[in-house]
Amino acid sequence: MSTFGNAQVQLKKAADKLGISKQTLGALLEPEHIEKVFCKVEMDDGETKTFEGYRVRHNTNRGPGKGGIRFHPQVDLDEVKALANWMTWKCAVMDVPFGGAKGGVVVDPKKLSKEELKRLSQTFMKLIAPVVGPEKDIPAPDVGTNAEVMEWMLDAYNSAVGGQHPGVITGKPLIRGGSVGRDDATARGGFYLLQKVAQDLEFPKHLTLAIQGFGNAGQFMAKLAADAGYRVVAVSDSSGGVSNPNGLDVAKLLAHKMSTGRVAGFQGQTISNEEILELPVDVLVPAALENQITKNNARKIKAKVVLELANGPTTPEADDILFQKGVIVLPDILANAGGVTVSYFEWFQNQNGQKWTLDQVHEKLLEKMLQAAQKVFETAHKVNTDFRTAALMVALRRVMSAQKVA
Length: 406
Ligand code: NAD
What we know:
Layout: H1 3-18, H2 22-29, E1 33-42, E2 48-59, E3 65-72, H3 77-94, E4 100-106, H4 114-128, E5 137-141, H5 147-161, H6 185-200, E6 208-212, H7 216-227, E7 231-237, E8 240-243, H8 250-260, E9 269-271, E10 283-286, E11 305-307, H9 316-325, E12 328-330, H10 332-335, H11 338-352, H12 358-383, H13 387-401
Parallel strand pairs: 3-4, 3-5, 6-7, 6-10, 10-11, 11-12
Antiparallel strand pairs: 1-2, 2-4, 7-8, 8-9
The structure holds nicotinamide-adenine-dinucleotide.
């Protein structure tokens, strides 16, 4: 099943519970606009290479499109459509006034020099400039992109349309209109949610976590968890993983990742990306890519809670198995929504000439996460369903009630 196919199955389940017709659902699934571009970029050796890219705007009933830009060799239209779809539902669950969008370029950014990466980022932004904008569609970082890439893209947008438009992109450096608290926002939102659930379920104070994926989302999650006294017993990235049942030294691990660019080589037992998912931990945090927990390994998951910092890590078949096993899945459209929520705060500050403090950002993020969680948990209990379906039901109601008249 394709990633977009998974998104379709998830939504259909929620739509069935709400009694939404097939036709209405079909219209809600397909994007409003797809922009496909070919970025012709001069390499350092003088050769010109072409990189394929996409910007998909899924739904703007509730506000401008919003969603990250991914640089990864496995990017394709199916994946970008799915990711754009999930952004619509995520913004609606969080009740931030955005619709859903996503972008991606088929490239392995690790294989480019810094100057090549900059030229690619700026070429891509120039090509999508006509379809993005502070009140139209607002990109942000995702896998393989970061604040520096956002800064390059902001410059490219400003030079393409003229003037200064900080609100066209979020996740920017502070000096260019970024918001304090955006760097760790995805992990922090998930962490606030986890704290609530851990309290509700009376988890031990030193609960154990395994984290698959050690980039922006995974690294900040490890830090927040360790600072709270939780035990991070395993982490992995594309280079492989390490584990230590007594808990890894997260500060040293972060320093190792910073200096070597990889998790592999850190002291501890070696563990594969598949094995990490099956560890007997309280909380499993997928923070890498889609389709990691599938019908093939769902029965072997031993965690009590799966906190989805990644988008789409669990397939619909796996969802059913985990629900039957009593594993609590905190779904991506809620668990990783801290990122888009603080992106909204950043955009709001840009559009209104404001600068918030870190305390203000954290306080407002906590409030948004708890409000959204409450609504999702209530819905799930009321209709006796899993949290993903409940979150999609909340989102669908909101998106449909904001349907444009013309
Ligand atoms: P990133 O590029 O900073 O990090 C990705 C990490 O995943 C890297 O450590 C990489 O080595 C690792 N990885 C790749 N393939 C892997 C595999 N097969 N097994 C284990 N690790 C693997 O990206 P990120 O921003 O941290 O995003 C991670 C996930 O979180 C994605 O699904 C993304 O869509 C989602 N997300 C990110 C944000 C954000 O604000 N950055 C917001 C919401 C959701």
